[in-house]
Write a structure and sequence with these properties.
30 helices
Length: 829
């Protein structure tokens, strides 16, 4: 029978229970018995006398199965039965009127149920009994486990943080920390608990820490600041404190959590970066070089003061603009194309650039473009550094003009004409078409000079030059090679010799007709006729020297025939070519039969004291005697013998240096382009030096400008390797080659050698003096030593000395001598 949710076993029990409730409880207890959310039971004689429906639901039994038949032990896990029995015993023995404890119950299906019991001692029918309530703690246990797991995970996570982490309560007392903080302070987290900074740090430092904590407590949130601290090892470190407050469940302040980030290395790097930045800025702001940074649109994003000074405008005018926008011009479009090329390829660029400032003043800059990349490798900006080489460029132009053009007529001189003729030979070899060399000599020019004077003679030469240029075709070359001698190089004539000769004859007759007219010069009617010699050529079969000889012979044939005429070279004069072929054949055996010798010509300083010697090869021909290198070196190059001959010269020179090493004389060795361009040339030199055990500084290699035509980068790399090893480097025949003087500063040279062509007529030729003076001045500006070769008389030496040339070589000081004679003359003394 059930009334109000309470099961009654019998009328007698119901009556007794009602009396009990009236006696022991009020309306609240009665409501509790009827509660379907909390398990309620009455226990007497170790058996349940009453259980409510919630109690039955919790354990999976019916009231009939529990009441009077089962007791607490039946519903308790084995490991907790002793605890439950003890607690029940304490209640019944009146040792404690009530108790509260937890244990794991045993459900009917064998499952376990975490419960919490609150029991009170009472009496029923005059005997002791317990009335109690039982709470299902399953959800709470699950929540507590989850919290415990989260706390464990959080603890592991905090311990895994490499930076020190700590947390404090609202009073500033430590609640915990991670392992990194333990190491940082040199104590365990257990020893920290409940302590404040005053327990751990010196008073002054503790005051600062406490003040910072208090400021954060006063205004809860986040706090960041830098400080210098001392670690457990005694090291002073720069750190950043990151702190944040946290709240309790009731929203009141709970304390703070802090992280310490060691920024000592970062601060050091920042200071170093700041120092370097200042050094860089000082350099950039004070250098005379133009420094500009461009973005991907070729717009300026930075300009240094030198850029503004050279441009003649303020930085605001330049920034944000492309070079083509300001100063503008076609050459700046090409400049921007170079910048875009660096962005596209990621590779730097280097070139010479002519430009004008706002005032129209012209400059020439040696420009280097360098890509500036992001960590991803993408080019984000391009840095432009422009070194002003305007003066060098002017000197270069002046020297080039003096070296390659005739100062009177402004026509190419012999040097430039020779280069043009070589180009014509190369073009003829490719096209198969004939070319021609015309040697033009003015008839009776000496008589005109003697009678009317050199001024009129010069005017005539200038007029002749104009007429020859007017007779030439586009692409032809007209040159003055000296005195009254002119040359024309005609290209792209015809594949057939007869047709080519006809074209040449037509041009020659035009020249004769043009020069045959009288010229009005300085009040005089001056007439002049030419004698013209012609040598046809096709391809590489003929050499420049041979062509000149043929044209010269033909010109004299024209003079012999009555002057004012044109003659072609007679092929019957080929005997000398045959003799040359014979010599080439004999040259191939010369190395094998040890027919080569080295002679040495002394090099002196301004006091006339020996400082070095140039090793000069000689061929001891068994029939022809001593043959000079000018007569066989070209043959050696053509026949492929230059490499073994060059190696022999290097070895022999190093061997001789070994004998003379105590004298400290530097021996110079000429190096051919073919020899220098070998991949292992540097190693060859090092091996020779090592093999003969000589100091590298006693060997000087003389290099010609032609070495740099194919690959400046490769040549510079080899020279730097030799220079680093200690070998001296000299630029031979300076001023007669083709290299850009703008790049001269890139070459790791020790010396420049002035060619004998400039020294020979220095006493009489104003142009040669100007060239030598310019070369010496440029060398001095570049910090290079200068030596003049071909010095044959005292006047040459005096002039060179006045121009600040300090070293000399030539017959004036000593002719080339065999090693033994040289040793007797210069070493033993």
């Amino acid at each position: 029978m059930t009334r109000h949710g309470v099961a009654i076993q019998s009328p007698e029990f119901s009556e007794a229970l009602t009396k009990l409730l009236v006696r022991e409880a009020d309306g609240l207890l009665l409501g509790l018995l009827r509660n379907e959310l909390i398990g309620v039971y009455i226990l007497q004689d170790d058996l349940f006398r009453y259980v409510n429906s919630r109690f039955c639901e919790m354990f999976g039994y019916s009231q009939e199965a529990l009441c009077g038949k089962m007791g607490p032990v039946d519903l308790t896990a084995p490991e907790h039965r002793q605890l439950v029995a003890r607690e029940i015993g304490l209640r019944l023995s009146e040792a404690s009127p009530s108790s509260r404890y937890s244990f794991e119950g045993l459900k009917r299906d064998g499952g376990r149920l975490p419960v919490e019991v609150l029991g009170y001692r009472t009496e029923f029918d005059g005997r002791p009994a317990i009335i109690g309530i039982m709470l299902d703690n399953s959800e709470r246990y699950r929540a507590e486990r989850k919290v415990a797991e989260q706390l464990h995970f959080t603890s592991q996570l905090i311990d895994a943080i490499p930076n020190p982490v700590f947390y404090k309560d609202e009073k500033g007392r430590y609640l915990g920390c991670n392992r990194a903080f333990e190491k940082y302070l040199g104590c365990t987290r257990e020893s920290l608990l409940g302590k404040s900074v005053y327990d751990l740090s010196p008073r002054e430092l503790a005051d600062r820490y406490h003040a910072a904590d208090q400021a954060l407590f006063d205004v809860p949130g986040v706090q960041t600041y830098e400080a210098r601290v001392q670690t457990a090892e005694g090291d002073r470190r720069d750190v950043v404190f990151y702190k944040a407050t946290f709240d309790k469940t009731d929203a009141s302040l709970g304390g703070l959590v802090g992280v310490i980030l060691d920024i000592t290395e970062r601060k050091r790097m920042e200071e170093e970066l700041a120092r370097r930045e200042q050094e860089y800025r000082t350099f950039v702001e004070n250098t005379h070089d133009v420094i500009v940074r461009f973005d991907r649109d070729c717009r300026r994003v930075y300009v240094n003061p030198a850029t503004c000074a050279m441009s003649g405008v303020e930085a605001a005018v330049l920034l944000g603009k492309k070079p083509s926008e300001f100063p503008g011009g076609a050459n700046f479009l090409e400049f921007e194309s170079r910048i875009r090329g660096v962005f596209e390829t990621g590779k730097g660029d280097e070139f010479e650039f002519n430009w004008k400032g706002a005032d129209g003043k012209g400059f020439c800059s040696h420009v280097r473009l360098t890509p500036e990349c992001a960590p991803s490798g993408n080019v984000v900006t391009v840095l432009c550094v422009g070194h002003d080489i305007t003066v060098l460029n002017d000197q270069r132009s002046e020297i080039h003009q003096m070296a390659f053009y005739d100062s009177l007529t402004m026509l190419p001189n012999r040097r430039l004409m020779t280069d043009r003729l070589q180009q014509a030979l190369d073009a003829s070899a490719r096209s198969g078409k004939q070319g021609a060399l015309l040697f033009i000599d003015l008839d009776n020019f000496k008589t005109l000079n003697d009678t009317l004077g050199h001024d009129i003679g010069d005017l005539l030469l200038q007029e002749v030059a104009k007429q020859l240029v007017s007779c030439a075709r586009e692409g032809d070359t007209v040159a003055r090679i000296g005195g009254d001698e002119f040359v024309m190089v005609l290209e792209n004539l015809s594949e057939h010799p007869v047709e080519a000769a006809a074209i040449v004859k037509g041009i020659g007759e035009k020249v004769i007709a043009s020069l045959g007219k009288p010229f009005h010069l300085g009040g005089h009617h001056v007439g002049s006729t030419p004698s013209i010699g012609v040598a046809l050529f096709r391809g590489h079969g003929q050499k420049i020297e041979e062509l000149f000889k043929r044209a010269d012979i033909a010109m004299y044939q024209a003079k012999k025939s009555g002057r004012n005429s044109l003659r072609f070279f007679d092929p019957g004069m080929q005997e000398r070519v045959n003799a040359r072929a014979t010599l080439e054949s004999q040259l191939k055996n010369a190395l094998e039969h040890r027919q080569f010798r080295l002679h040495y010509q002394v090099q002196v300083d301004e006091a006339g004291c020996p400082v070095g010697a140039e090793a000069l090869i000689r061929w001891l021909h068994p029939e022809m005697g001593i043959i000079q290198p000018a007569n066989f070196i070209a043959l050696a190059e053509e026949s492929g013998l230059m490499l073994p001959i060059g190696q022999w010269v290097l070895e022999e020179a190093c061997r001789r240096i070994g004998f003379w090493r105590k004298s400290r004389l530097v021996v110079s060795v000429n190096v051919s382009a073919t020899q220098f361009r070998q991949n292992d040339f540097v190693q060859q030199v090092k091996s020779a030096i090592s093999r003969h055990g000589i100091p590298p500084s006693l060997l000087k290699l003389e290099l010609t400008e032609s070495l740099f035509l194919e690959s400046m980068k490769d040549a510079v790399a080899k020279m730097e390797a030799l220079k680093e090893y200690g070998v001296l480097l000299s630029l031979d025949d300076f001023g007669t080659g083709y290299s850009s003087l703008g790049y001269l500063k890139r070459l790791p040279l020790d010396q420049i050698k002035i060619d004998r062509l400039f020294v020979r007529d220095i006493a009489t030729d104003r142009q040669d003096r100007s060239i030598v003076r310019a070369i010496v001045s440029m060398a001095e500006n570049l910090g290079l030593n200068v030596i003049a070769e071909g010095v044959e008389n005292g006047e040459q030496r005096r002039l060179l000395t006045e121009m600040a040339c300090r070293h000399f070589q030539g017959d004036l000081f000593g002719i080339p001598l065999a090693a033994e004679e040289f040793e007797r003359s210069y070493i033993s003394c």
